[in-house]
Amino acid sequence: MYPDSSQPLRPHALTVSELNRQARHLLESSFMQAWVEGELSSLSRPSSGHWYFSLKDQRAQVRCAMFRGFNQRIREIPKEGDQVRIRGKVSLYENRGDFQIIVEHLEPAGLGALQQAFEALKARLEAEGLFAVERKKPIPEMPRHIGVVTSPTGAAIHDILTVLGRRCPGIPVTLYPTAVQGQAATASIVDAINRAVRHDQADVLIIGRGGGSLEDLWCFNEETVARAIAACPIATVSAVGHEVDVTIADFVADLRAPTPSAAAEKISPDQSTWIARLTDTRQRLVSAARRNLRQQDTRLGQIAARLRDPRHQLQEKAQRLDDVELRFRHAIRQRLATEQTRNSHLAQRLMSHRPSRQIGEQSLKVEQLGERLQASLNRRLETGNQQLDTAARTLNAVSPLATLGRGYAIVSSDDQTVVRDPATLAPGDRIRARLAKGSVDATVSSVAPGAD
112: helix, coil or strand? Predict the structure, then answer.
């Protein structure tokens, strides 16, 4: 079967992971390093030690990640709202597709803390006269012995020896090794200068190192190093960094060279005969080195295309772990808030149903019912007393005793029968008359029947 030409071919679709990966490679290859300035906000510092924050201006913002290995160099932790300058690689966090900068250096915006310290020390030493031209010693035109104060493994000693070997290989060179970066570098440089003085061999001393950031070169801006150079009886040449790098050591030294190689050029005599003999060898070495470098660069490019830098994977894993940690903390805070609210509601309900409160309420009801019962009993007794008084008055009105009280008497025969008709009696019968107060026994003497 042949494909239906009327139906358009569907283009290959990338997965989201493939798209983000290609975008990250494109960003990282297009922006090797970038300096960005803005306002710091949303700073987060999880337990891993990494920093995550945003850098913003009036119209936009960008996410930033500064891993622990870099932020440990920061002397003072920045805070929300600070204006800062950062240097780092433009990249992409593949898991979320977030555009971000992997920060390698952070400093206050404007002049910067280190630059401020540099300017303050420069002004103070200049006021003391340590930079004055009249105190600088001349550099010998034909040095007998050259001393070098630098790192034994850095590029500076290699450049110096290369230039001296090309221009004047017969001059002996003594290396006074020292650290040229880090906290211990300041004391190490001072000690190396003092060793060169005690050795008393060199008549010119190169002090320097290769290029680097302001922090990397800072030991050459320390006051103790500056005073050691100023006090050195040997003619000194400062050769720190590249041409654009300027340190306090450059101002104090008897001569300033823009680079270590330039320092070797300035203090060594030009011996053209040696140059002629070395030219062919140098050219062949350079050609071989360049050819080898091109081959290695091509091979490295092929390997790099297939091999992903494991640091990126570690950084992404660390960032994912921090992201999970932050979300976990947020979930825990929400759960705690929910449980606290629920416990508060239960406590309120428990307080409303506590026995002491119910007993108090029932006691109040019993007291109220007792008062109502007492009032009802009082009303009932009062009504009963009134009814009893009325009945007593009524009963008293019809009582025989009341009649007796008005002067009447009740007459009864011997058999206790009440005599109502005198005809039932005969003379000589015994009778008893009951009066209001007591009774009277009598004998009938005559009977007089009454009219009907």
Answer: coil
Residue 91 in contact with residue 80, Cβ under 8 Å?
A: no
DSSP 152: T
Beta bridge partners of 439: 434
In angstroms, the CA 319 to CA 205 distance is: 48
State how far the Cα of 168 lies from the Cα of 162, in Å rounded to an integer: 10
How far, CA to CA in Å, does 163 sit from each of 135, 263, 265, 289? 29, 9, 6, 17
Residue with tokens 């493994």: 153
- Tell me how far apart the alpha carbons of residues 198 and 380 are, in angstroms, rounded to a whole number: 126
The type of residue at 101 is: I
Non-local (6+) Cβ contacts of 267 within 8 A are 139, 140, 143, 146, 204, 206, 237, 255
**How do the pLDDT tens digits run along the chain, 452 residues long?**
445 555 566 778 888 888 878 877 887 677 777 889 899 999 999 999 999 999 998 889 999 999 998 888 887 788 888 888 889 888 888 888 888 999 998 888 765 567 778 888 999 999 999 999 999 999 998 899 999 999 999 889 999 999 998 888 889 999 999 999 888 999 999 999 999 999 999 999 999 998 876 778 889 999 999 999 999 999 999 999 888 788 999 999 999 999 999 999 999 887 766 567 678 787 888 888 888 888 888 888 777 777 666 777 777 888 888 888 888 888 898 999 898 888 888 888 777 777 777 777 788 888 888 888 888 888 888 888 888 888 878 877 777 777 777 777 888 887 778 878 887 788 888 888 888 778 888 888 888 876 55
Distance of alpha carbon 218 from alpha carbon 181, whole angstroms: 8
Provide the terminal-to-terminal Cα distance of the chain, rounded to the nearest Å: 155
Count how many residues are written for the chain.
452
Q: Are 348 and 341 in contact (CB under 8 A)?
A: no
* Rounded to 5°, angle at Cα 126 from 125 and 131: 100
Q: In what order do the strands lie in the sheet with 410-412?
A: 410-412, 430-435, 438-443
User: Is residue 94 within 8 Å of residue 316, measured between CB atoms?
Assistant: yes
Q: What is the pTM of this model?
A: 0.43
φ, ψ of residue 438 in degrees (nearest 5): 95, -165
Residue whose pair of structure tokens reads 């040997």 in the numeric block: 234
Q: 195: closest CA among 209, 178, 171, 170?
A: 178
